[in-house]
UniProtKB/TrEMBL annotation:
Lineage: Bacteria, Pseudomonadati, Pseudomonadota, Gammaproteobacteria, Alteromonadales
Xref: PANTHER family: PUTATIVE (AFU_ORTHOLOGUE AFUA_2G14390)-RELATED (PTHR43861:SF3), TRANS-ACONITATE 2-METHYLTRANSFERASE-RELATED (PTHR43861)
Any one GO BP annotation for this protein: methylation
Pfam family membership, one: Methyltransf_12
Protein name: Class I SAM-dependent methyltransferase
This protein's UniProt keywords: Methyltransferase, Transferase
Organism: Shewanella yunxiaonensis
UniProt cross-references to SUPFAM superfamilies, sorted A to Z: S-adenosyl-L-methionine-dependent methyltransferases
Range of residues in the leader sequence: none
Methyltransferase type domain sequence ranges: 42-147
């Protein structure tokens, strides 16, 4: 997956991601989060750090993966300027430059996660890479943990490639990796008002 467009347009993407809140974007699955004890979270493709900051503010230990250097640097700066960062109880986010589908550097940490979040990421991978990613994410997820994926449906108009995601095949492959479907949303409209983009959320748990 090429990160050049995110690298060269980091300011624009940062502003776009920060223009909506985590509560807005993730309203469908946040009730599932509220049922669970605070633990360790992995935010893959963390972008502006919006969701990583949201989780860290709730007390989660967060490891955030963002391969685009310029975007990651803006996210770190934003975190350091946030009010919650100054709290004595706040655990700073651990930022790592790594990429799907392998997440090789994340694996080296030898950690397991209670929550893994992929928000608007999977469409950057072709079908074979999507399956590879699921294999590795299952390996990294604790038993009883949840894997949350928000899936973008719709083409890009800025040169980025969006690969199709066959949700039923994705769920079937997930089951082979001991990932059971907890809940799945209907297609919903885009928070940024783009008429050609819809979203679906899938929540899986590891058995």
């Amino acid at each position: 997956m090429s990160n050049d467009i995110y690298q060269h347009n980091a300011d624009s993407f940062f502003k776009q991601y920060e223009s909506v809140t985590s509560e807005q974007v993730h309203a469908f699955w946040l009730p599932e989060l509220d049922k669970r004890a605070i633990g360790t979270a992995l935010d893959v493709g963390a972008g502006s750090g919006r969701d990583a900051k949201f989780l860290a503010a709730k007390g989660w230990r967060v490891i955030a993966v963002e391969p685009a250097n310029s975007l990651r640097e803006l996210a770190i700066k934003s975190e350091h300027l946030s009010e919650i960062y100054k709290s004595q109880t706040y655990l700073p986010i651990d930022w790592i430059a790594d990429t799907l589908p392998n997440l090789s550097l994340i694996k080296v940490l030898n950690l397991r996660y209670d929550l893994i979040l992929l928000s608007a990421v999977l469409m950057h991978l072709n079908q074979h890479e999507q399956q590879q990613a699921l294999n590795n994410l299952s390996y990294l997820l604790n038993i009883g943990g949840i894997l949350v994926m928000t899936l973008r449906v719709g083409e890009f108009s800025d040169g980025r490639i969006a690969y199709p995601i066959d949700v039923e095949k994705l769920i079937a492959h997930a089951e082979m990796q001991h990932l059971k479907l907890l809940t799945k949303s209907q297609l919903v409209t885009d928070q940024l008002g783009r008429s050609n983009v819809t979203w679906q959320t899938i929540v899986l748990t590891k058995e």
